[in-house]
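Hello again,

I reread your note about wanting to compare the complex against the isolated chains. To keep things tidy I'm splitting this into two emails, and this first one only covers the full assembly. Below are the input lines as submitted, including protein chains and any nucleic acid or small-molecule components. They are followed by the predicted structure of everything together. The single-chain runs will come separately.
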Amino acid sequence: MQEASAQQVHQHAPPEGFIRKYVFSLDHKVIGKQYYALALVAVFMGMALSWLMRFHLIWPNSKIFGLELLSKVGAPGGVMTPEYYLSLMTMHGTLMVFFVLTNAPFAAFGNYFLPIQIGAEDMAFPRFNMMSFWTTFVAFVVLVLAFVIPDGPPISGWTAYAPLSAVGSDAGPGLGWGQNLWGISIAIFCVGSLLGSLNFIATTLDLRTKGMTLMRMPISTWAWFITSCISLLAFAVLLPACVLLILDRVAGTSFFIPAGLVVSDRLQPHAGGSPLLWQHLFWFFGHPEVYIAILPAMGIVSHVLIASIRRPLLSAKVIIYSMMSIGFLSYMVWGHHMFVSGMNPFSALMFSFPTLTITIPATIMTLIWLGSLYGAKIRITPASLFALGFISMFVSGGVSGFFLAQPSLDIVLHATYFVVGHFHMVMGVAAIFGVFAGTYFWFPKMTGRMMNEGLGKWHFWLTFAGTYCIFMPFHYLGLIGNVRRYSAFVDDFLVPLLPLHKFITIAAFVTGAAQFLFLINLIHSRFWGQEAPVNPWEATSLEWTVPSPPPFDNFGGKHPVVYHDAHQYGVKGSRGDYVMQDSPETVVPES
Amino acid sequence: MSTQANTMTAAGKSGAAEAAKSGIWVGIAAITMSFAAFTSAIIVRQGSDASWQHLALPPVLYLTTLILLGSSVTLEMSRRGISALTAGSASGEGGEAAAGGLRWLGGTLGLGLLFVAGQYVAWQQLAAQGIFLATNPSSSFFYVLTAMHGLHVLGGLAALGYVLRKLAGARPALRRSAYEAVCVYWHFMGGLWVYLLLVMRMRL
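Full-complex prediction:
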């Protein structure tokens, strides 16, 4: 227990050899890129699934080329069965929520930039960090295995409502080993997320460099820090829930399966379980999960926005406090997912109130972003466009939340496309826009090369217009009673809606195709892009003081000293209108 | 806007030592949350079931409780000797204290193993009465809670073994904060077990 050994902990030498350098790496930057790559694979898989589903909704009897190779049972002769539609829906939701929306904005960018932004050489526990990625990777493999087993993926949706998810293969396709794999995968994912969150929190608390007080941290760091606190407590609840679910399925316990349940003419050998218990445990995780996806995007967008408008936000402090209160309130609102689940109506009221309260910090943040934009000369880049797009999506998707927060309205809208439109816009697309903003902003730092701006702008406009074309009509469809989770619209009252669904499907194909522009840009720029300077955006935070890409220990063995917060724009500095966080010069306002 | 570097914040070097301490508290927060989830599951599950049957806890659990609490005492007894090792005085009087510290640490490890064995005996006793995991909701929760706690204790034992191995070598090399973190975790395991015992006794 010598002091000397304490100092060596974070000064591990650069590894030699491919495996230690790129595969089982302890370097937070490599781990961040690994998370990003995993999210990229998952997002294209999830998108392909949504294409298959959208195609099937319009042409339910048409053959899809090659689909029978994926599942002979689910798509005999290449025509998707209604059950297989549900299987694909489960996988779409699970891949997107866990492996994309949790991994990309939080784990990928957080891992790469949190330590650099606070002036640390690495995460507090590099080995845990490596383990957290590889457990997540195993979770991904286990989940995807559900595609190749004869049973196919489960049909119970990403929320895996019991008793459907608990009773086993009697209840339908994919509910045998498919559902087991799902449960095991999510349990493993929980472990990976817990390790990651633990690391983020300890790193932020203890490894900040000299002068980096909490309030001097960039908003993005704050967002990752708050998110890691939410994630720690949320996944700690989902893990026990998964354990109980798996036991109900394989060990004959009755946590979630009620007495006297007859499925496929067979009386289930379970008694007394509570299906609502699963929903309580799941949504206690599930609602904070929404903020695990969106808070990092809020942080990234704020970070990108300040550098683009060249002046501080109206109040960075209020943004940070708003994020904290969102994090706190996120634990009191889970019941608003269960308004139609048979809860006591009084509990519905109890959950409606904090749900509406949570719109207050969200609105405050939006007003701060918009107020800061007022009269600003914004530098238009793909990153700033996606940051603006985020605000647009967040508002458009968030407004419908006011309606859904009221139990009486939710009863009508709950099982319709209105909800699907709401959450796709506010948590799905908005968070992805945050990821895009972060990618265009930080790519030069991560790879040492610039991305193509023209291609990036095309990507933005196509994605922006496309996602509105897809998800805005969802609200309209929901209002006129278009139920969700149907694999085809053959009922009389749904047939007149088919033309609109066709429009949505075409928009989905075009918007999806536009994502290949992004992929091409990503790959091409990685190898042949223009070389990036140290600080291409003239930004102030510490990641822009180190070479692009940063060396193994980030700061070349030195410990940076921080003198300012990260919002010193619109000032008279020696380099122009900004002062770096590690610059000792006195800040003089320009006006 | 202050332009002075604030020297009060943790600098990179000492932060590494601090991280183990805050890391263990963060981990404890997560574990607490998990067992809070199990507890609320018991309450909700019990509320939904009119035919709930109570479970008589195997008496050996009270003995294992004493063993686990005793192991916390032995761990505290190791503190003075481990401090001598930290100071690097492995000779003379300091050497004796250090050897004593290692013995107490070894004793803690032994008691921890005894606790796990005792929990296994409790399972055997229930199984002998024909009470298994899926017999009734009480027994389901009993097995799940004891197994989950047992897994966490095994993790703690692995950590104790690691600390012991690092300290017992010819050139002891371990950060003080790592030892402290293991101590905090081990005491927490004891506290958590007392809580679980009370919950199981009152609700199951």
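For quick reference: The two ends of chain B are 58 Å apart (CA to CA).

B.
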